[in-house]
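Help!! Second protein's tokens look totally different from the first
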Amino acid sequence: MSPKRKLTIALVIPVFNEAGVIAQMHTRIRANIDSLPYAFTFIYVDDGSSDSTADELTALAKSDHRVTVLALSRNFGHQAALTAGLDASRGDVVVSLDADGQHPPEMIGQMLDLIAQGYDIVQAQRADDAQLGSFKKWTSGLFYRLLNIISGTRVLPGAADFRALSRRAVDALKSMPEYHRFLRGMVSWIGFKTAILPYHQQARVGGASKYSLGKMFRLAMDAIFSFSLAPLYIGLSMGGVLLFLALAEMVYVLSFWVTGRTSNLAPGWSSLMFVILIVSGMLMVLLGFIGVYVGYIFQEVKRRPVYIVKQG
């Protein structure tokens, strides 16, 4: 009888301007996986780094034959880089984690044990927000509460892009070619059997976070407009309220005519202007929501790729 084939595990690691920490992180990952009974490969995705990250990745690939480097033509963003790694993976299981050390590779063995138990998704969830500032902690909690209220897809608060996926879960994600990607929501949306694995976020090995306030805002907008039509329904609800108020105002004015008290009617310039401003404001908000959705549709129908690989 031939020996049982080892499961192949692909580690997808997006990097952007992580010079000086890559070799250290790779050594740390190897220390935690080399003793595991699996065949590992590494896929490092260079998301258009402008420092010496590319040179360090090239040296790493020469020193470890299991390493594959995908160099994107420019900085497409973290979600696009993750997508590139998932698309390039060929393992039975894919584990994604960041290269900055905040996702502990010590948990990879636990993740693979849960996959072996029949789970298709093992999602790491940040157990505490001690590493987050008060503003980021507050806005993150507010965002997840809002998203879970307005969308039909539940996304775990504190969920990270640190997860293990079975091959069929990866194939399901690859079948979703949308341009605006929020992988945390997409992974929840596919609905496969999921295990939650809490972790304590660790300090960065080096460098600084690449998620600026603007990038976090754009990611939040991608999540909201990709997974919910609630903004449109809010605009419609506001329109219904305004129509009700207009009907009430009409009944009120007619009551003066019916009772013969038309002399008591004031010119009403202030109230008229107030109503006009409210209606105009609501129309602009609703048109803005519609414009965003039309913009998303426009970007989708162009069918541009989510990323472009320059080398790999």
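Here's the second one for comparison:
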Amino acid sequence: MVLFDTHTHINDERFDADRSEVIENMQRAGVQLAVVVGDAAAQPESAFALADAYPFLYAAAGVHPHDAIQYNDAIQAQIETWMAHPKAVALGEIGLDYHYDFSPREAQREVFERQLDLALELDMPVQLHIREAHGEAMELMRRRHASGTLPRGIMHCFSGSWELAK
């Protein structure tokens, strides 16, 4: 069996003291592939630095819904640059998070749509973060699916029901 961790934050500062040990433990435990996620509004370079340093690590970058208020054309251009990296495998994590509302909901919706468009343009899968915004997110994704504008991807964070997941 191949263990593939589709979403790690081992680039987070909380791992500064023991990051190499954590990475070694991942490999000892049988993790053969892992994606390190970088928030383009915070610390995405670290995801790509780790991907460059370890053959089994890959990277994703996008703007988390918490940081949507910071999204701008320069950040989008930087995401485009990172998506050209040979070990870039996904745009994310992106989505809607209405639990804390660190960014206004309108900004989250706009940035989510922009990043979905970018993923489609770049032919990259997305890592979705949908928290306490399921109705709105599903409506948006159904609309995009019907129009052929929903990129492929995975659901990383989902706090909805089993029925909604189906």
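Reply: Different proteins will give different token patterns, so don't panic. The mean pLDDT is 93.
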